[in-house]
């Protein structure tokens, strides 16, 4: 009698009135209808209603939309014999009980389910009772999470139609579909968008102990964490050497640095607190990549490789040896003799690499989170002397960019190799 969720249906007993009415009904030959078998193939009655309505769903049905299931720690009653719910938003300390059993099929512990008011495991049941999970229908796509800079619109489905139970298989395939949206650039960079979210928590003090509240200014933790951890609203205290999560997660679409190298043209962005990879077509995990010409899914036939070298320069000044053409892609420049020479880069008339007469440190412009970032790498010998410089820019180039070489002495040797597609 437990599976219908009726009031006190675990220890159901008939009242005198109900007993008399039922006996009168059956004795007057009106009970033939109970002999009919239900013709409800594929319905909830084929399985167990708890497979479709979890314990949170049952709490919401009983107490309203804000209700959530309680953690069940009391040993005086089997969890499946009573519905226990938090009914006040934000209050996890009190638990309201309704003396009805959980629906048959409700998950009551890891790999255990309610059945007739008891929490049972597959070993207590026959293999024929196994219920394989099936997907619900997709939800509608959510509104774009950002107005510019590349937000995310997503839809989801759940493995609850029914839920897998009694040793059955889980659903196969993704539970989320997502795409990038509002890709037009923002006035601020991707790094500034992350910094803004961190700084919005400045008014929330950090409790280093139960009574010690300390205020900090929070900045991004880029360069300190990558991957999923970076999307957990992980921020760094300015002027201090520690990081903490300042909330559940960054806004969907916030850029992140993947833990491993991402394909050319793909975008790494936070989605539900994890660092996800979007193909060049903007679709989650599509695997679509750009060819050398910067064309998504292209075959490389729309551009040509430009390859050259450079060996000249003037002492104690910067000489421009390459002005990148618009839409240039896969720019790769190497300086193999950086002892007396070094690279410099001018973007929109401002130096972003070197520019002060000395070799630059490793630099990413505007930041490691930008989709079209320029990356400068300096390699050192075991004696910490400059060994090689490398400049990488996936493109397509949309800004005025000049690549220069600087010589510190009159007789320095220049050996630059460059290539790009245009």
From TrEMBL:
Biological process per Gene Ontology, one example term: proteolysis
This protein's record includes keyword Metal-binding: yes
SMART domains, A to Z: TSP1
Record-annotated ADAMTS/ADAMTS-like cysteine-rich domain positions: 189-303
Disulfide bonds: 59-85, 70-95, 80-114, 108-119, 144-181, 148-186, 159-171
InterPro entries: ADAMTS/ADAMTS-like, ADAMTS_ADAMTS-like, ADAMTS_CR_2, ADAMTS_CR_3, ADAMTS_spacer1, MetalloPept_cat_dom_sf, TSP1_rpt, TSP1_rpt_sf
Keyword Metal-binding carried by entry: yes
Compartment(s): Secreted
Protein name: ADAM metallopeptidase with thrombospondin type 1 motif, 13
Gene: adamts13
């Amino acid at each position: 009698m437990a599976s219908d969720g009726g009031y006190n249906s675990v220890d159901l007993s008939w009242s005198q009135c109900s007993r008399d009415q039922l006996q009168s009904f059956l004795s007057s030959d009106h009970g033939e209808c109970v002999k009919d078998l239900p013709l409800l193939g594929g319905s909830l009655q084929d399985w167990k209603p708890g497979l479709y309505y979890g314990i949170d769903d049952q709490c919401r049905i009983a107490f309203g939309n804000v209700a959530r299931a309680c953690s069940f720690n009391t040993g005086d009653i089997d969890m499946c014999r009573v519905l226990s719910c938090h009914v006040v938003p934000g209050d996890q300390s009190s638990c309201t009980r309704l003396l009805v059993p959980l629906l048959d099929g409700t998950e009551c512990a890891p790999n255990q389910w309610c059945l007739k008011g008891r929490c049972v495991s597959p070993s207590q049941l026959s293999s024929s009772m196994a219920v394989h999970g099936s997907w619900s229908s997709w939800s509608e796509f959510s509104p774009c999470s950002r107005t510019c800079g590349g937000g995310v619109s997503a839809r989801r489905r759940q493995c609850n139609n029914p839920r897998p139970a009694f040793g059955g298989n889980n659903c196969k395939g993704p539970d989320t579909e997502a795409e990038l949206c509002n890709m037009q650039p923002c006035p601020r960079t991707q790094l500034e968008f992350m910094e803004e979210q961190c700084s919005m928590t400045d008014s929330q003090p950090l409790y280093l102990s139960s009574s010690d509240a300390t205020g900090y200014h929070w900045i991004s933790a880029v360069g300190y964490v990558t991957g999923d951890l970076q999307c957990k609203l992980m921020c760094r205290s300015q002027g201090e050497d520690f990081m903490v999560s300042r909330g559940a997660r960054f806004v969907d679409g916030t850029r992140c640095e993947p833990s491993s190298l991402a394909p050319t043209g793909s975008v790494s962005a936070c989605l539900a607190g994890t660092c996800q990879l979007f193909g060049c077509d903007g679709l989650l995990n599509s695997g679509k990549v750009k060819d050398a010409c910067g064309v998504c899914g292209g075959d490389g036939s729309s551009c040509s490789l430009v390859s050259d070298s450079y060996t000249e320069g003037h002492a104690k000044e910067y000489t421009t040896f390459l002005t990148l053409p618009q839409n240039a892609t896969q720019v790769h420049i190497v300086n193999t003799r950086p002892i007396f020479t070094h690279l410099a880069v001018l973007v929109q008339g401002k130096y972003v690499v070197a520019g002060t007469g000395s070799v630059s440190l490793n630099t990413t412009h505007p930041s490691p989170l930008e989709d079209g970032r320029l990356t400068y790498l300096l390699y050192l010998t075991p004696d910490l002397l400059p060994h090689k410089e490398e400049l990488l820019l996936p493109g397509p180039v949309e800004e005025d960019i000049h690549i220069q070489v600087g010589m510190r002495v009159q007789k320095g040797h220049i050996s630059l190799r460059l290539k790009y597609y245009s």
